[in-house]
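Batch job 17 of 40 flagged for manual review because the log was empty.
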Amino acid sequence: MMSHKVPVDKEQIINEFSNVGDVAGFLDKTQKFLDFYSEKSYESYVRTRIPEVEKVYGVPILVLHIIAKMVGEFGDRLPGISEYLIRKLWQKKTREERIIACEALVHCFAVDRDMAMTLILEFIPDLDNREICDMMACVGLKPYSLQYPKVILRMIVTWIKSPNPWVRRFGVMSLIPMARRKELLPLDPYFIILKRVMKDKDNMVGRAISRVLREITPKDEFRVAGFLEVFARDPDPSTIVIIKEGSKKLNSDLRNSLMKIL
């Protein structure tokens, strides 16, 4: 991760946002700090790492964490305004403002989970890059995934059928918060969902599948190995990559056996 030339003044950011009295003022203050902390070198780094990103300032993630927290505090001071503010941030279409919106959804869930879910469902069709897609799945949606996993699993079945590859990736990545729970749900739903997307031709969807497989491997590596073996015996270019990447947390004997089949 790159270091930044301008030190982040957390106290200044908090103090200035604490005096904001309306949405227009909040958006103006956000713009001020995005301009102040933007760095061309970091912007270039982000564009290299996530080439599909369009509008980016190059602002340190710490600044975005602080502003997202202030969205929550702003909503506490002015009840009912959070939904409108988060929607406005999302509509700006910049990397930074969408990250703020994703993180602010976590606070919204604690206050009004239905409102937070309404916003997520509204934003999903707009997903257009890996970073925001994964943040929405693993941060914005996380509280709902952990509290209502069966509901989210049913939604994932719909998302992975989308013609939009970013929505399909979002569906797969939405499994990760549930996979990281100490008490994992039965693995059957994971394998049912992953089986349906294993031959997806989109590289970003394939990478998401591999990540989920690596996450659930410590729970039952033999089932993961058995699942991958089925596809290793009838491989295509997409599944070969997934098998190689998704098997990296298997013990060496299991992984070597898979590689021999390939």
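Reviewer: the log was empty due to a logging misconfiguration, but the result itself is present. DSSP finds 17 helices and no strands in the chain. Unflagging and moving on to job 18.
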